[in-house]
Amino acid sequence: MTLVNESPTQKPGRAARDHADVALKAAAEGRWQEAADANRAVLAFAAEIKVEERIEAQNRLAKCLWELGDLAGSKKEYQVTLTLDPLNRIAERNLERLKGLIKQVGKKTTPSSEGATTPAGIFIQEAGTTGFAHLTNVADVATLAQVNPGDAVELLTLSNRLIAKANGVEIGRVEPRIAARLLKLIADGNVYSAGITSISGGDIRIIIREESVSAKNLGKVSFPTATRTNDERPYTKGSFFREDEGFSDDDDDDTYEDDAPVADRVTAEPPEKTADDAFLPESEEAGSSEE
Q1: Which residue, 40, 104, 200, 235, has most beta carbons within 10 Å?
Q2: Distance between CA atoms of 264 and 61, rounded to whole angstroms?
Q3: Do the Cβ atoms of 53 and 20 come closer than 8 Å?
């Protein structure tokens, strides 16, 4: 565990920010126990720091406990957040899901593997090279207990299906209309990465990113859209970790066209600050937030 060595002359606010930096780095590397300890160290300065900093630390701690398999502990910390900010969307959404999970799988679940993280770049939306998809044949609640927004998704081809796996377990299949196109591109050599953007009940939504294009697929756009005569549709880029927030569902009526020209792609606009920005280092957060 690597916590900050506080000097007798160090101001509480500075010490709290140093602990927060440790928490962010540890979380980004999937070291959840260390991240939890660092966030507790931030909260030890609760009387000396801004309420916003305390709320962020509470939510980070709650998330770390969830990653460690302590669903009841995570629920408790999100409840503390709501005493500080009754309208906090991060806490509200996660509490809603946690209550259901605890009823069905109990207060403890399998911890995430240490070091299990998702590259933040997966969640940055780029016209033509990223797209959203819903999953079908979704796994049961117990299987999904330790699967959350922000997790990396492995895409595997099986006959005419595109299987989605996260944390080593199958969580569903990519919806047929998108899988059909991607299966052809994958068969011809394209490579894709993916991550979960939202989970609501039995509905799981993922973002899929084109990582490399084979020579055979040069000129083919992975995620084309039909030309629009109305205003360009905004795309919201997400962020690194698990909070279910800030991802647009309004791309579901896209009409895919083989080899659509690049001019037909929609463009991205700066997103609102998402729930997971609390887990991004400052350098990355600045690049993904309009604030």
Answers
A1: 235
A2: 43
A3: yes
In this predicted structure, the answer to whether residue 123 has a pLDDT above a threshold of 50 is yes
- Where does 120-288 sit in CATH, by number? 3.30.70.2330
Name which residue leads in pLDDT, 233 or 129: 129
> CB of 131 within 8 A of CB of 223?
yes
CATH top-level class for 12-105?
A: mainly alpha
Distance CA 75, CA 95 (A): 6
Residue 91 in this model has a pLDDT that exceeds 80 = yes
Tens digits of residue pLDDT in 165-221: 998 889 999 999 999 999 999 999 999 999 998 888 789 999 999 999 999 999 999
The stretches of 87-167 forming alpha helices (DSSP H) are 89-105, 141-144
> Which 3 state secondary structure label does DSSP give 155?
strand
The domain ranges of the chain are: 12-105, 120-288
Most trustworthy range by pLDDT among 37-41, 142-146, 259-263? 37-41
Q: One-letter amino acid identity for 160?
A: N
